[in-house]
Amino acid sequence: MKKIYNLLLICLFLNTTSHADYWVQKTDFGGAARADGTGFSIGTKGYMGTGYVAGYTTDWWEYDQSTNAWTQKANYGGSGIVESSAFNIGTKGYILPAPTGTDFWQFDPITNIWTQMAAFPGPERQAGVAFSIDTHGYICTGALPSLAASMNDLWEYDSANNTWLQMADLPGPARHYATGFSIGTKGYVGTGTSGATGNLNDFWAWNKLNNTWSQMANFPGAPRNEASSFAMNGFGYIGLGYVSGSPSSDFYQYNPTNNTWTQKANFGGGIRVEASSFSIGNLGYIGTGYNAGAGGGFTQDFWEYHPEDSTTSIQENGLTAASFNLSPNPFSTETVLSIDQNLLNHEVKFQLFDTNGKLVLTTPVQESTVRIQRNSLSGGTYMIKLLVDGKPAAVKKLQITE
Q: Is the alpha carbon torsion for 179, 250, 222, 232 positive or negative?
């Protein structure tokens, strides 16, 4: 029996274990559209809020990954803030306000209470970088209020003793609107803008074990400021931001093991600056921000990033290359996919991605032969991922001719 799947394009490369990364749009951020907010994750929940709406805001929201839903929580404990620094330590989150203030606040998601902690001893700042390592949090770089001057200092917060200590300065140019993350015992800081040199693409690692900085491989994208970042699975990710005054959507992965960068799928929400980000488990999240393109403005969309998965192969599902056949590829009007009848004992799905890595279609396959018609899809290159029993099994590019 043949079954026609309109708008479904399917192909397989059965011996590969390389799988495409992609973005999935999730439920919009629960608050109003905004830019320059902040965020972090605690356990299996994400938190975002504050920033600029029609003025500086204090609202605070919790994202539940399991239900894809937002819940409003207690407002941030201080006054309205924008371009603030935030990190998490264990089961608590922390925010240093901006553009002014040295008051420092802890958020407890269990009690839903904000508590003021030891005041930040460094200069007031906005647009700094924050990350955490074990039981310590770190705030680095930024600008004096009203962007009067850039800084390169690094401060450590000890959550066990509620104390601050100044650490070694970043040896690169003083900067603000930089971004960063932590992996293991190292914190990473890069990009941003400097009053002396303009936008930057240098990238630095701070080693907690000996309080020293090392310059790493430059960020491979164009120099930029107000980028977004997060870390997960032992990799760091940086993208988006202003490039030569224009917003961007490109996105890159950093591998600390070999000090290399790899370009990944462009951000699914398009060009974006001043967005908030965090990671939960093996998934990354970016939302809100400013779309400075034509017709753009403040946003409230929220996107989930699925990294490349090279750990699962089709052989783990007990299948072989002989289980599948697709002909022709490339095609202009129609192609036919044949699947071994035994495969139907498994749950099989195909996911279709466009050239930006955006997931545009997920479809179950329940017949052994599928006739695939092009219909209204434009010519070009597409990427198809096969899921068998919910696990990535294979991926390949598919070409549709004009």
A: positive
The upper half-sphere exposure of residue 34, i.e. CA atoms within 13 Å in the direction of its Cβ, equals 25
Burial of 10 (0-12, 13-18, 19+ CB in 10 A): buried
pLDDT confidence tier of residue 303, bands split at 50, 70 and 90: very high
Structure confidence by residue, pLDDT tens digits, 82-108: 999 999 999 999 999 999 999 999 999
**Sheet of strand 163-167: strand arrangement:** 129-133, 136-143, 150-158, 163-167
For the CA atoms of 70, 72, 76, 82, the dihedral, rounded to the nearest 10 degrees, stands at 50
Closest CA to 170 of 212, 198, 200: 212
Pairing of strands 283-287, 136-143: unpaired
Please tell me whether the overall predicted TM-score, pTM, comes out greater than 0.90 for this model. no
Looking at residue 336, what is its pLDDT? 76
How far is CA 163 from each of CA 104, 111, 156, rounded to the nearest angstrom? 11, 23, 8
Q: What's the mean per-residue pLDDT of the chain?
A: 87
Q: Name residue 395's beta-bridge partners.
A: 385
**C-alpha span between 193 and 229 (Å, rounded):** 16
Q: Which residues does 341 contact at the CB level (< 8 Å), separation at least 6? A: 368
* pLDDT for the residue 241: 97
- Dist CA 252 CA 262 (whole Å): 6
pLDDT tens readout for residues 231-280? 999 999 999 999 998 999 999 999 999 999 999 999 999 999 999 999 99
Would you state the structure tokens that stand for residue 241, as one six-digit string?
């931001």
pLDDT in tens, 133-170: 999 999 999 999 999 899 999 999 999 999 999 999 99
DSSP letter string, 237-293: EEE-SEETTEEB--EEEEETTTTEEEEEPPPTT-SBBS-EEEEETTEEEEE--B--S
Per-residue burial over 14-48, b if 16 or more Cβ lie within 10 Å, else e, is beebebbbbbeebeebbbebbbbbbbbbbeebbbb
The residues facing 252 across adjacent strands are: 238, 263
